[in-house]
Amino acid sequence: MKYIFWLSFSLSALGLWGCKATPLPQPTPLPPTPSSTVRPASLGIVGDSTDVKTPVTGGLVLMGGGKDVESAFKWMIQRSGGGNVVVIRVTGTNAYNPFIAGLGTVKSVETLKIDTRDLANNDTVARIIRNAEMLFIAGGDQSKYMNLWRGTKTQEAINYLLQTKKAPVGGTSAGCAIMGGFYYSGESGSSISTTALADPYHSTITLYNNDFVQAPFLRNIITDQHYLARTREGRHVAFLARIKKDWNVAAQGIAADERTAVCIDQQGMAQAFGSSKAYFLLPNDAKAPELVEKGKPLLWKRNEQALAVYEITASDTGSGQFNVDTFHPSSAAGGKWYWWWVENGQLHKKDQ
User: Fold this and answer.
1) pLDDT beyond 60 at 287
2) Phi, psi of 340 (to 5 degrees)
3) DSSP label at 330?
4) In what order do the strands lie in the sheet with 59-63?
5) Among residues of the chain, what percentage have pLDDT more than 90?
6) CA distances (Å), origin 299, targets 50, 199, 251, 267
7) Which of 78, 99, 172, 283 has the CA that lies 20 to 30 A from 274?
8) Taking 60 as the threshold, does the pLDDT of residue 5 lie above it?
C-alpha cells in the first residue's frame, strides 16, 4: 500500500494525476516554397504582380527581331499606364524582366514560359495574361506558338487584351509573325525568297487565315521580320500572291527589318521606331498575280506596277506615318514609294 500511496503522491505533485498531458509545442511551419504550382509557367517576377487597374491605351508593336528596340518598349510602357507587364514565350529565359523594368515605371514584369498545351489551358496562366496592362510575345519559333497556344485559354487571353481590354500588345520576330490575321507558320522549315519566288507552293510555305491572334487593324495583314537582314522581301510577296490565289483576298503586308519596330496607335496610325527600315506593301485587287502555280516561278508583273510599297526609315523618336486602318496611299508621310514586281521568279524594284 505504501508504494501505491507514494506513486499517487508523486503524480499529484507533478500535476499529472487525473489530467491530460499538456501537448508539446509544435514548430512554426515554414512558408510554402514557391513553385510552378503557385504561378504556373512563371520564370520569375520583377516588382509587385498584384492586380491593378491602370488606364491603358491600345497599341500594337511589330518588331523585326535582332536587337530589341528600346524606344518601342517605352512607347508600350507609356500606354500601359505603368501597370503589370507580362512576357510570354515557349523557350528562353526571363531576361526581359529586368530589361523592361529598367526602361520605365511599371508595377511588375513577369515572364511566362508556356511550353505545353496544359499550361496554355491553365486558368492561372490565362488570368495572369488577362490581368496584364501590357503584353509582349518574345521571339522563338512561331510554329510552336501556333501548335501550343492556338485554340487554348492563352489564345483567348491574348485576344481579350487586344479586343476588350485594349491594352498594348507587341511581339518580336516569331512573336511578330503571329500578330497578323494571315500568318506564316514556318512549321515545315524556314522559307527563303529564292525558293518562294521559284515555287509559291513550296513545302516550306505554310499560311493560315485568321484563326489565331485577332489584333485590331491586322485582319487582312501578313507580317514579316528580319526583312533586309535576311532578304525576305521576295518571300513576303510570294505570301501575298498565295493569299490572293488561295483565299481571293488582296491582303496587305507590313514588314520590319531588324532593330526596327512598327508601332500602331489606337487609331491605326503607324510609325517606325529604331534604326533600320519598315515597309508597307499594297497589292491592287485589280492587279492580281498573272501566274501562281505549284512548281512554277511566280509571275506578278502588271506592267511593272504589281505592288505599291512604302518605305519608312526608322528613328528613336518614331518616323513617318502610315494608316494601317485604311491603307490609303494618301495617309503616307515621311517615307518613299516604290513599285515592286516579279518576273521569271525574280523580284524587281523601282522608284515611283
Assistant:
1) yes
2) -120, 145
3) G
4) 42-47, 108-113, 84-89, 134-137, 168-172, 59-63, 260-265, 269-274, 319-323
5) 89
6) 55, 10, 17, 36
7) 283
8) no
**Structure-block grid coordinates of residue 174:** 516569331
CATH topology of domain 39-179: Rossmann fold (3.40.50)
Q: What is the mean pLDDT of residues 42-60?
A: 96
Domain spans of the chain, in order of start: 39-179, 181-260+268-352
Residue labelled with grid coordinates 514579316: 224
Q: How far apart are the C-alpha atoms of 275 and 283, rounded to whole Å?
A: 26
Q: Which residues in 78-151 belong to E strands, given as ranges?
A: 84-89, 108-113, 134-137
- Confidence (pLDDT) at 323: 98
Cβ partners under 8 Å of residue 213, min gap 6: 155, 158, 159, 162, 178, 179, 180, 181, 183
CA pair distance 15, 314, nearest whole angstrom:
86
Beta bridge partners, 338, equal 309, 351
Q: Which residue has the cell 507514494?
A: 6
Q: What region, left, alpha or beta, does residue 241 occupy, with left being phi > 0 and alpha being psi -120 to 50 degrees?
A: alpha
Binned at pLDDT 50, 70 and 90, residue 10 comes out as very low
Cβ partners under 8 Å of residue 272, min gap 6: 256, 260, 261, 262, 263, 278, 312, 313, 314, 315, 318, 319, 320
Reduced to 3 states (helix: H, G, I; strand: E, B; else coil), residue 350 is strand
| 239 vs 12 pLDDT, higher one | 239
Q: Are residues 218 and 324 in contact, defined by beta-carbon separation less than 8 angstroms?
A: yes
Residue type, 26: Q
Residue 9 has pLDDT above 70, yes or no: no
How many angstroms separate the Cα of 262 from the Cα of each of 138, 224, 245, 339? 16, 11, 27, 21
In sequence order, which residues have a C-beta less than 8 Å from that of residue 39 and are 6 or more positions away? 45, 110, 124, 128
Cβ proximity of 318 and 269 under 8 Å: no
Residue with cell 500500500: 1
pTM: 0.89
- Containing 159, the helix (H) or strand (E) segment is helix 153-160
